[in-house]
Amino acid sequence: MDLKELLSQFKNDLKNISSLENLEAVRLSYAGKKGALAKMLKDIANLSAEEKKTLGKKINEAKQEIQEKIAEAQGGLAGKKSALPMDKFLKTLPGKKPVTGHLHIISQAISEIVEIFKPLGFTRARYPEIDWEYFAFEALNIPSTHPARDEWETFFIDAPVDKKFGRQVITPHTSNGQVREMLKGNLPIRMLNISRCGRRQEDASHLQTFFQFEGLAIDKGVSITHLKGTLEYFVKNFFGPKRKIRLRPYDFRFTEPSFEVDINCDLCGGAGCKFCKGGWVELGGAGMVHPNVLKAGGIDPNVYTGFAFGWGIERVYMMKGGIKIDDIRHLVNNDLRFLEQF
Ligand code: DAH
Prior knowledge:
Layout: H1 3-15, H2 20-31, H3 36-43, H4 49-81, H5 105-117, E1 123-125, E2 130-132, H6 133-136, E3 168-170, H7 176-183, E4 189-198, E5 209-219, H8 224-239, E6 245-250, E7 255-264, E8 280-289, H9 291-296, E9 305-312, H10 313-318, H11 336-339
Parallel strand pairs: 1-4
Antiparallel strand pairs: 2-3, 4-5, 5-9, 6-7, 7-8, 8-9
Helix pairs in contact: 1-4, 2-4
This protein binds 3,4-dihydroxyphenylalanine.
3,4-dihydroxyphenylalanine binds at residues 173, 175, 214, 252, 255, 258, 284-287, 308-310.
């Protein structure tokens, strides 16, 4: 075989190569120690000095060409295998950081609320998320026939009814923790009950499953000024010193007097929008614990008084300055494009 034929055969072989292993085999068969070119060099050993010189030169040129083509093909195949061939690996290039998540907005808000109330001596309590109707209503001075029950749009559990405690419900509010806390028998009380709640309602400002935090303080001589001071302290720390609250008289059955606590809407600045419908957003209820509730908790209302408040976590979070979430359902839709912003 002459050199020209050998080169064209080599080029042909090269075209059909698909792996680095293939390529190495081809390299050995042409340019290896026992390859075709080495054999040719051996064959010319007996020729005249002149012929050896010119043929030898040609064979060496062919070898060089073959080696160059092999190196080129090697680069191509390595490139296919990985974007960064080992010889181009940059040891100093920072690695890819694993994706790290963060606490969900609701969990962040819970931690923040707990931290704000801590210095006032409120400690976190947890009570059943599926509880007896008794603790959600009767113990809170709302008998089964009272029309106020409708406000709590309750989910009932399909389970046997208890003679004293009634049906089981998904707690429609954290107030179920009030009498449970009193029945522990430790006075004075400064409780912060945080829990998931459920109600049959859903729109831009309500979720079927949501969180509330319930404050309860019971001691001798607790008055409405303590309640107002506590609410204002929380609002200042959570929302910032510029936000305003207003207390609207209301008729919760378990507090007397009772209030709805509103805050001016941060989304529209108080002008009225889809979320607030009138410039103010309701944060939740508050009031002085009703004597009947104290009695249900085994506490003498002639000796002790107390205040309570129960607010929605998602709701208070949405009302924070600059957050501007116009639909509460974004919080639970699990869309990372939204959640990663917080
Ligand atoms: N539990 C009430 C609700 O979910 C809110 C509430 C009102 C809680 C007055 C209280 C209170 O502790 O005193 O609508």
